[in-house]
Amino acid sequence: MNSIMILAEEVANEATVVNEFEQTLLRIFILIIMFGLGAGLTPKDFGLALKRPWGLIIGWLTQFGVMPLTAFILVTFVLFQFDPPPGVAFIALGALIMGAVPAGTTSNLFTYFSKGNLALSVTMTVNSTLWAFVMTPLMLVIYSRLVGLDESLDIPVSELVTVIFGLIVPVALGMLVRRLSANAGSVLELIGGVFGILFIPFLIAVWVPRNWELLLTTQWPTYVVAIGLGAMGMTVAYYIAKAIKLHPMNARTISLETGIQNGPLAIAVIVSVYADSPGLDQILLIPALYSLFIVILSTLVTFWFRRANVAAEQKIPNLL
Amino acid sequence: MTTYPWTKHYPSEVSPELEKVPYANLPELIKAAVGTYSKTKAFTQVMPNGMNGSLTYAQIDTLSDNFAAYLREVVKLKQGDRVAVQMPNCLAYPIVAFGVFKAGLVLVNTNPLYTAPEMIHQFSDSGAVTLVVSDMFADRLKAVLPKTKIKTVVTVKISEFFPPIIAGVIRIVQRYWSRTLPKIEVDHTWFQDALKAGKNAKNDSAAASYLKGITSESVAALQYTGGTTGVSKGAMLSHGNLVTNTLQMISHCGTGMRKGMETVLTALPMYHIFAFTINLIAFFHIGARNIIVPSPRPPSNLQRAFDNYKITWLTGVNTLFNALLNERWFQDAPPKHLRASAAGGMALQASVSERWRELTGTPLVEGYGLTETSPVLTFNPLTGLSKDGSIGIPVPSTEVKCVNEKGKEVAVGEPGEIIARGPQIMLGYWQRPDETASSIKDGWFYTGDIAQMDADGYFKIVDRKKDMILVSGFNVFPNEVEEQIAAVSGVLEVGVIGVPDEKSGEKVQAYVVASAPAPTQEQIIAHCRENLAAYKIPQGVTFVDELPKSPIGKILRRVLRDQVVTGSTKKGA
């Protein structure tokens, strides 16, 4: 349990599994990326996402339907079944919170690289974050009762507002720049893309060495939950979107948007709500592991989507 | 003045006969536009990610003067020397083309996708002594140049005339990301250096002499054609051919082409005669802003151009319009400022033109012409009666008729070979008097296309003479069958050819590119059964990933047939 202690100490000190400096760096990364993504968008793109709200509706359903349910299923049928580790209730609580939080900003990045519908992705992130005021506590109450934890929590409004502003402001600025100069806009977009590519190895590089012990001592059911949440969420959402015949571009978007939860938000919420809980370190375990593995998972899925994309949609007549 | 069945269908503002042409050669036509629109943006090049660069009419004029001076004073070319140009659409292209004309030289447009043997053929056949080439394609030169008379090579970057930072970013992306900059292993001069040298060597009295003796009869361009029918040959297009065809097209479009107010999207390559005459020269002449795109493949490359500019005009081929109609971003937000589109190069399918009109709410009119005719012969009037499935009526000062094997005009409604006479008919094929004699008789150019004229004087292409399929003695025209198959839902593209058959001589075979959910062979044949006579129904439908196409996207049936009959997988030019 040594590693958990380290994690808990760090959490206590730094409020996260990465240190302050790295956290700031990551925020700047995300800002630059979102700025660049915004530079690739026009108001028209958002108009379309709203004009045909099917993607948005399905995304909402998978976000707050599939994800909390998946967390519940994994907790019930994996975590509680196989040789439950000490403090399993706390770990389960972390999993349920992870399932109930809204979509993360990185989903936009992966949607961009997957040739998905970026405007839909951004709209969905904003939408699910707004709904999180109501839905995240509601889902947590329902599923924690079902697993016998009887927890409730209030999401600090300031956290959600920060998320939304951190998303909307750079995107809007990027769009503005692009409108003023298509040249400046496309350079920004390129820079955003480069940072997006660097983002993943950077994240892994700061996360893995620091939490090496944690990775070694964590038991496999916990891994199954941490990795399975994103994997199952993406898979189920993808096939639901496919089944109702959404455009492949939107199906990819919804899949990533659903599977990628806002890990940093979950961590921040837990730290502020459960600061005094004796099980803080265990509650943080799944969100921390999830945050690492979702990046790896999304990268793999993105490669797969890009291949599928070429195979399925580039048959549009070749010109020249 | 003779009256033709079509005369009454010219819109009121269109005169059936062109007035006296006020320009002796292309440079005069160019100067006229520069004088009127000097400060206006003439060309804007748009990359797929929206990066762009622009040049004004005045800049194009000055820079092409510099390039003309470079060719004559620095390279020391003599009047009438051939200059081959091989590049995709970019800002350098109009400067080079206009510079060549201003220098009194002959332009040889060359497809950048040509292989080394094709380049050798075209360069040596034309006798080109100078080559202006995109640096992306310069790796083939080491093998090509020794077999040609080319002494001077000028290399052009795709990012030429972009803002410096943007040009730098494009270079970095080209070099390290897309790796499209091969090592150039031959002596060459960079375009910007050539322009500088030309600027220093320029003097007005010499410039005036470049065009001495250049009349409407002088050759302006050798435009190679016949790649689809065998050996490629150069159509000699004179200054007069190109000037009059430009004015014919402008006149024919009447109020559809508004002076100084149009923004035209040039997605087709300008080295091809269609975009060359209409987009490069005609739209320049009326003071339009030309939005040029280096490659429309994939069609999403055009999205930023449509997003960022108020496109009022679009020229294209069936393949392009069809591709755009199948693009989601295009369906979701059809261009708001579009006023008219013109299709040529290949048959425009009724299903495509109907969907286009429905989606964009603007007319898409079909015209017809060949490289040998500069190219425009006929077009549907933009502001008058436009008939679907028809190539329209002859442009002003042009006679067109359908004749039988003996050269006699056939009755209205009867199919016959379409022949044409007018100021846009080429001088002949370069150094091929026999081929010239067999295609131009008594001033009439024999197109090799079968058409019929209706009572209104509107022409309808039945098919290419050589593509006709002979099934048990019945003529089947692939166009007709393709038209039906294209209307089946899920069919993106179709090519119909005749393949040898023991029983019927030839049988009809269809090759289809389908989108998901793909139709079945049975559905396609059932649709044909409802709409076509029994002998026209394809014996088989093969689903393929891709059909062979020409540079402008015309489906090459001959290449398809070669692939099928010989089992070879050779790609089309």
Whole-number total of structural domains of chain A: 1
Number of helices of chain A: 14
CATH topology title of chain A = Na+/H+ antiporter like fold
Percentage of residues in helical conformation of chain A:
over 70%
Q: What's the main sheet of chain A like?
A: none
CATH class term of chain A: Mainly Alpha
Residue stretches of chain A low in confidence (pLDDT < 50, at least 5 long) are 1-16, 311-320
Low-confidence runs of chain B (pLDDT<50, min 5 residues)?
568-573
Tally of DSSP β-strands of chain B = 27
Oligomer: heterodimer
- Note the gap between the termini of chain A: 63 Å
Tell me the distance between the termini of chain B: 44 Å
CATH topology call of the domain at 52-214 in chain B: Rossmann fold
Strand line-up of the largest beta sheet of chain B:
2-1-11-10-12-13-14-15-16
Q: Which radius of gyration of chain A do the C-alpha atoms yield?
A: 19 Å
How can the largest sheet of chain B be summarized? Answer: 9 strands, mixed
Strand content of chain B: 15-25%
Query: Would you report the number of β strands of chain A?
Result: 0
Which labels suit this protein?
heterodimer; A: 320 residues; Na+/H+ antiporter like fold; globular; disordered C terminus; B: 573 residues; alpha/beta; GMP Synthetase, Chain A, domain 3; 9-stranded mixed β-sheet; 18 helices
Question: How would you describe this protein?
Answer:
The complex is a heterodimer of chains A (about 325) and B (about 575). Chain A has about 325 residues and is an all-alpha fold. Chain A has a single domain (about 1-305), classed as Na+/H+ antiporter like fold. Chain A has helices at about 1-15, 20-40, 45-50, 55-80, 90-100, 105-115, 120-145, 155-180, 180-205, 210-215, 220-245, 250-260, 265-275, 280-315. The N and C termini of chain A lie far apart (about 65 Å). With about 575 residues, chain B is an alpha/beta fold. Among the domains of chain B are: about 50-215, 3-Layer(aba) Sandwich (Rossmann fold), CATH 3.40.50.980; about 470-565, GMP Synthetase, Chain A, domain 3 (2-Layer Sandwich). In chain B, the strands form 5 sheets. A 9-stranded mixed beta sheet of chain B has the order 2-1-11-10-12-13-14-15-16. An 8-stranded mixed beta sheet of chain B has the order 7-6-5-3-4-8-9-19, sandwiched between helices. In chain B, helix 2 packs across helix 7, helix 9 (about 240-255) packs across helix 10 (about 275-285) and helix 12 crosses helix 14 (about 350-360). Chain B is globular, with a radius of gyration of 23 Å. The two termini of chain B are about 45 Å apart. Classes of the chains: A mainly alpha (about 325), B alpha/beta (about 575). The interface between A and B is medium-sized, with 21 and 43 residues.
